[in-house]
Write a structure and sequence with these properties.
- The chain has no helices and 25 strands.
- Among the domains are: 18-83, no CATH class; 117-159, no CATH class; 173-206, no CATH class; 269-395, no CATH class.
- Strands 17, 18, 19, 20, 21, 22, 23, 24 and 25 form a 9-stranded antiparallel beta sheet that branches.
- The chain is an all-beta fold and 396 residues long.
- The protein has strands at residues 18-23, 29-36, 42-46, 49-50, 59-68, 75-83, 117-118, 124-128, 134-136, 147-150, 156-159, 175-182, 185-193, 197-201, 255-256, 265-266, 269-280, 290-298, 301-311, 320-323, 336-341, 356-359, 364-371, 374-377, 386-395.
Length: 396
Amino acid sequence: MAYIGKAPNTAIVNQTTSQSFNGTGSATAFTLNRSVNVSEDLEVFVNNVQQEPGSGKAYTASGTTLTFDEAPPSGTGNIYVIYRGEATINPRLEHDANSALAATTGTFTGAFTSPGIDDNADATAITIDSSENVLVDKTSSNYQTVGHELRDGGRAFHTADGSKTLSLNRLSSDGGILDFYKDNTEVGNVQSRSGVTSFFVGDVRTAGAGGASLHPIGGNTPSIRGGNHSALVDNYMDLGSSGNRFKDLYLGGNLYLGGTGSANAISDYEEGTWTATITGSTSNPSTSITSTGHYTKIGRLVSLSARFIGVDTSGAAGGIRVTGSPFTIANGSIATGNVMIHNRFNASASNTVNLSPYVTTAHIAFYLAISNNAWTEITHNPGNDHYLIFSAVYHI
């Protein structure tokens, strides 16, 4: 049959239904099989007598509850209800896949299936694949392509092409920017200090290390998939280069150069002054003669110097000695250095002689080679305007 205008909805049909209840003489409320809006949606009979709807009359009805003003008498099936409204058979809604779905609110009670989340742009914004990986700006899990991946199991990959991959911004105050944890315990972090420089702090020891330490880790094949990048390496990499140097190095312990033994350890560096005093092996000068010398100590190696210019050594006799060395020479150590002595010491007739200092635990003496196998100690020739300038290097 043809229709003028829109065809009627075949999903809505006229279906009058009824329902019976058993009166108890005390019950006033009864549950309906279907919901109603007002009392007039029902025709109610008690013992075949039709009742008047409305509050203060015989009954009211709302939703699925029928309420009598007075309890109907006892009887089997003596309460009879006829539903006046039309029963609606709700069909399954199928949306046209080629048409836009406009909605402002709604709730899905079952599973929601979608090939992706659309941001109303020209590409899929977020994809959740079959492995529960969340992908942004990409549709397949591959960390070598641009985009972001939150992978099942807790791993995350962020890939950019020709730009920064990750930016972390802390506002207002200094403090941690990135924290590192192992088994729920913090093992280090990157911090902002004084609003300018970031530091890596924390215990970065490796298994088996004898304390907190920073170790080089690398592999023979520096590629993405090649090489054992969790293995410790030895004597493998440089700290800086000839054209890209670090500035100052501050150490609280030893510096090992060329090896790992105690002989390779430089434990300290020190510079200072010392008071050098001229004495004699037989007698000292009548007037104390002192001079301020300088020294540098690197580990066990001491380099010192002093000079006496135009001094009066009257009263001195015996070998020329200088006392006051800031560090005691090691047993068996031999000092080397240079000496210049004015000719009024009895070393030679020349103004300058080639001498060698000899450092003992108590003093520094000066010797002159007089033949291939003989040495003589330089002795005092008391008088005015004497000069003694020397440097020496020895181990402690």
